[in-house]
Design brief:
Blueprint (H helix, E strand, L loop, with lengths): L2 H4 L5 H22 L6 H9 L5 E2 H8 L3 H13 L3 E5 L6 E5 L1 H13 L1 H12 L3 H17 L2 H6 L6 E5 L5 H15 L4 H8 L1 H6 L4 E7 L3 E10 L5 E8 L8 H16 L4 E5 L4 H9 L3 E2 L1 H7 L8 E4 L5
Parallel strand pairs: 7-8
Antiparallel strand pairs: 1-3, 2-3, 4-5, 5-6, 6-7, 8-10, 9-10
């Protein structure tokens, strides 16, 4: 499995970095075969210094990488005897230029390395080579004008969305609810009946099932509205995967279920839970549910674990 490829366009930076590393590894072998004492990463600096002395700042502009990266590469070329660093006319700056050894390496690279690497890249890209390079140029220009983080801040894509029930999603309904029930309690017969047959036990009886999907994570939560024989609606089998904590998926889903209950009609809109579910109870209270002894007396015997009953004011 290729994780970076499977993640798609959002991992473009990582994919291009990996691609660059693979190409530079091959170019390094071509350079070594030509018996040149430099690395592919040095080639842009040799080209930038061809017949012209430049300051570090000018090299940053010419090559388009960070100042620390430029300083590090120039230090390596100086160590190799390919470049020299001298005090410029402005005493605050130093100028970098090629030594005769650096000029000789550049000349050999132009003849023995660059043409071979260019031919190899054209073989890889075929007829799309020029179009690909044009697209890279457009991407570089666009990024120079507006960085990724600025563009990301403008994204209007919803992080959370509501999905309607479909039989293909039934396993999510079961798995999400089984996760919290098995962790905190034990599965009761009434749980199994609903989770094993959500269409028959909920939808066919006039209820509804909604899911919350998180962009990049898929289905992370589920909840149901089950029609009671007396016309009420029970908010039931609501859970959110542990992997989605912090996304407020539960609050998003609960708000959607309350709105759906209003559309469906029914009185009362209630839920049955257990005091151990403190975080869930806090959420129910936040969105308007209130503890109700009458609901407990009327419906509480449905689950052995039920010791908390709540009602939404005004019903559905």
């Amino acid at each position: 499995m290729d994780v970076i490829r499977e993640q798609g366009i959002g991992f473009l930076g990582s994919r291009l970095k990996r691609l660059g590393e693979r190409m530079q590894a091959g170019a390094a072998r071509v350079t070594a075969d030509a018996e040149l004492p430099v690395q592919p990463a040095h080639m842009a600096f040799l080209a930038a210094l061809d017949g012209e002395a430049r300051t570090i700042g000018q090299l940053v502009q010419a090559i388009g990488i960070s100042q620390p990266g430029v300083t590090r590469a120039i230090g390596q070329l100086v160590e190799l005897g390919m470049a020299r660093s001298e005090q410029g006319e402005d005493q605050r700056q130093r100028t970098i230029s090629l030594t005769p050894a650096g000029e000789a390496v550049l000349a050999r690279a132009r003849v023995h390395v660059w043409p071979k690497v260019e031919d190899a890249v054209r073989m890889l890209l075929g007829e799309e080579a020029d179009a690909f390079m044009a697209q890279i140029a457009r991407l570089e220009t666009a990024l120079a004008a507006t960085p990724i983080d600025v563009l990301a801040a403008r994204s209007s894509a919803a992080v959370l969305t509501i999905r309607e029930y479909g039989d293909a999603l039934a396993h999510h309904f079961r798995d999400i609810n089984a996760e919290w029930i098995d962790t905190m309690f034990r599965m009761e017969a009434t749980d199994r009946e609903v989770l094993d047959d959500p269409r028959g036990r909920i939808l066919d009886g006039g209820g509804a099932i909604l899911f919350v999907e998180a962009r990049g994570l898929g289905i992370v939560g589920a909840g149901a509205l089950q029609r009671s024989k007396d016309g009420g609606l029970e908010l039931t089998k609501m859970g959110v995967r542990a992997s989605a904590r912090g996304l407020k998926a539960g609050e998003f889903l609960l708000a959607a279920l309350i709105e759906r209950a209003r559309e469906m009609g029914g009185e009362p809109l209630y839920l049955l839970t257990n005091a151990k579910c403190a975080a869930a109870i806090h959420l129910y209270e936040k969105l308007g549910f209130r503890h109700d002894a009458g609901i407990m007396a009327r419906y509480g015997a449905r689950y052995e674990r039920c010791d908390v009953a709540m009602r939404y004011p005004g019903g559905a």
